[in-house]
Amino acid sequence: TGTRIGMDCAALLWGTILLACSCGPGPPRVGAAPLLAATYVLDDSNGLGREFDGIGAVSGGGATSRLLVNYQEPYRSQILDYLFKPNFGASLHILKVEIGGDAQSTDGTEPSHMHYENDENYFRGYEWWLMKEAKKRNPKIKLIGLPWAFPGWIGKGENWPYDYPDITAYYIVSWILGAKQYHDLDIDYIGIWNERAFSSKYIKLLRYTLDKHGLEQVRIIASDRLWEPISFVMMIDSELHGVVDVIGAHYPGTKTVQNAILTGKKLWSSEDYSTFNNDVGAGCWARILNQNYVNGNMTSTIAWNLVASYYEELPFGRCGLMTAQEPWSGHYKVESPIWITAHTTQFTQPGWSYLQVDGHLEGGGSFVALTDGLGNLTIIIETMSHNHSKCIRPPLPNFSVVPQRATFYLRGSFYMVETLQVWHSRLDFESGKSILFQQLHPVKVWRGRFSLDLNVDEVYTLTTLKTGWKCEFPEPPPPQPFPSNYRDDFNIRNPPFSEAPNFADQTGVFEYFVNASDPGDHVFTLRQVVVQRPITWVSDADQTISVIGNFKWVNMTVTCDIYIEKPRDGGVFIAGRVDNGGIYVRNTKGVFFWVFADGSYRVTGDLAGQEILMKGLAGVRDNAWHTLTLNIQGNSASGLLNGYPLWENVTVSKPGNGWAALGTRSFEFAQFDNFHVE
């Protein structure tokens, strides 16, 4: 399998690394600065540090895995293997998913298991499927659920989930029970409300409701925002202190606060990273994976997001550990953060313990050491420079890193270790030819001591474990743009997922629907099903919208059969050159062709319907099928109704390009069929 060659390359590399560092018995090169040298002691004889809880990633918050589900095999399984399979790629310990709330949660909406008060369905969306795929590969993976938004009925009309805390607790516990009943998934941790306010009363009630349903083993994380005020409130409220198991902070910049430490609770960076997944993103990830513990006592770090499987032009494009945004071609990319993850995840497990060490390297950078308590030792070293490890947030104070020699003394139960396996990455910002997760020759430990020459922007793992593995599938197919001629008639009797492929809902939820009363042409349709404004996380639009296609499209013809269900003030649209989505969905511009139940039509330059380009009578009515066609060529647009021209020569200047889309005037039922874009 080429391992032999691999080892030879490693041997050569090892040689060049040592030579380049002016080491060895002879004097350093003339004029070369002497290498900064320092010693570090690893000792377990006075006890261990905090228990390690694992490295993970988030799917959701929102719709970040949207396009992943539509990949054909074998590519879809390959992507999942790179993420979850132990000793393979990222080998993640934790998967955190959004509990869908029917609302925009960054890159789209994810469907709720309870759209309405009397509705329960545990087969919507893709997070159930993803959790099962993760468990299939790693039965020990930990699962976390966290809501970003909630269906509107929970607030009884108010944009707030805590007025009726018993209803909210019942809703969340239903999700956990449904995970078990329908998918045999055990949820390990549950959160409160992502990056929004917490209610002490609600958290206590949630604990009570969990226990009442036999879910004592489910732990509570709070508050998925900042260290304060949750830490302070826990210090003064002993009952709250008793029910919160983990304090989870977001983007902590590797720092914690005194109150958080004083609670004595586990501290996690429960969302971090969120950075473009090039080598700088890898540098950011390498730095925080170590320094969240070294500087901040955090025993778990969770990346947003797991895999960038959403249209790249949506907010935070490619901020995943890897990229899989082309199900139509099968193309995906194993980005460098995957292999940075492997440096920690392949050689540690939740339940291991950190050693009590300072962890700062004299020449800049950091190290952590972990043990399973059974004689195994793993050391992870990173020397990321400032400019090559900036995360998206918070701002990174200046620091410097220089080449250095680190000598480690192994004491206590590690004194008898004779050799350590070595895995190495070097991010190369000059040539762009980075070395990622390469196995080097083992290091000989002599009388409990070994030395290592460290360059800048490197990661080393030294470990007693021999199970590390860098697996690589054959190259996936080359990238291709979204098909320029695409149609979907939604005629599928038992769809594997509730949503049609490639449609990315940005407000509202569009689901496959079986129209039992239809005589035949429109039995299987796509239906918008959110009929009340949700308890939002950001500012969802007042209209519903789902986008599809290639953002670079300029000239296009969009055709769709539409069915308005809401009498009097109901309405639907098809659109082209749609320029926005995600958290910015309210500002979406494009060319929108609307028809309304009152018989009128409009052409607007925006989703909000403020910029009216043309209006008139169309004679469309509710509860009847009609066919809309929108044609955009250059600076001109025209529209057809049931194949006959309705309006033409409408001047459209900007946006100059964008997706195709469909949607509704308000949160209302409506159906779509025979969608076609060219």
Automatic annotation (TrEMBL):
It comes from Tychaedon coryphoeus (Karoo scrub-robin). Residues 354-468 form the Glycosyl hydrolase family 59 central domain. One of its GO terms (biological process) is galactosylceramide catabolic process. Residues 1-23 form the signal peptide. SUPFAM superfamilies: (Trans)glycosidases. It is found in: Lysosome. Its EC number is 3.2.1.46. Residues 52-346 form the Glycosyl hydrolase family 59 catalytic domain. One of its GO terms (cellular component) is lysosome. GO terms for molecular function: galactosylceramidase activity. This is Galactocerebrosidase. The lineage of its organism: Eukaryota, Metazoa, Chordata, Craniata, Vertebrata. InterPro entries: Aldolase_TIM, GH, GH59_C, GH59_cat, Glyco_hydro_59, Glyco_hydro_59_dom. Belongs to the glycosyl hydrolase 59 family.
